[in-house]
Amino acid sequence: MFEKEIIQLYKYNGERWVKRRVSHNVSLTEQYNIMEKYEQIFKSKPFFLPGGVNPQNYPEILKMESIMKTKLKSYKNDFYIHDLMRYFSTGRKGIWLLRESGTDYIPLKELKADSLEVYDYFLKANKVHYLVDAGELKQINYDTSLKIILEQLKEVA
């Protein structure tokens, strides 16, 4: 299992992953400050991963980054800080949503029936949807995303 309270920062140099830092219990504000400093020093964004994740074993990280870079114009930090942490800490199965100004990640393992309106809002607000399941990425549409969420909610009811 992955450790959410431990954050590892990695950089991919085009050939291999390089671990840059390990932090414990870092606030979100501190994460954004770290991101800013690393961008200034290394001229690239670090990948924020939970403890226990070796990115070498997860090629989908680079696939997701490539997709994100083609779809987003701003708020790319959403992917590096939020999406990857949620992806790994919630079972590596969810609906990944992208728009020009950010991303959202809905982990299928943590769905709540009373949040259906919120999920529907996120699905409608984001034009690009992917089902991400243990490393496999499949582009889907709004209807398929909603169907997957509804089916998952039936299973947990």
Strand pairing plus helix content: what structural class?
alpha+beta
Helix run count: 5
What is the count of distinct domains?
1
**Distance N terminus to C terminus?**
25 Å
Mean pLDDT: 93
Radius of gyration: 16 Å
Strand order of the largest sheet: 5-4-6-7
User: Total strand count, please?
Assistant: 7
Largest sheet: 4 strands, antiparallel
Q: Provide the low-confidence segments as ranges.
A: none
Query: Given the C-alpha coordinates, what overall shape results?
Result: globular
Strand content: 25-35%
The arrangement of helices and strands along the chain is: EEHEHHEEHEEH
Helix content: 40-55%
**Which assembly state applies to the chains in this document?**
single chain
Characterize the structure shown.
The protein is α+β, with helices and mostly antiparallel strands. The protein has one domain (3-156). The chain has five helices and seven strands, in the order E-E-H-E-H-H-E-E-H-E-E-H. It has helices at 28-42, 60-71, 77-89, 116-125, 142-156; strands at 3-12, 17-24, 47-51, 93-99, 102-107, 128-133, 136-140. The protein has a four-stranded antiparallel beta sheet with strand order 5-4-6-7, with helices on both faces. Strand 6 and strand 7 form a beta hairpin. Helix 4 runs antiparallel to helix 5 (142-156). The longest helix is centred in the first third of the chain and has 15 residues, at 28-42. The radius of gyration is 16 Å and the shape is globular.
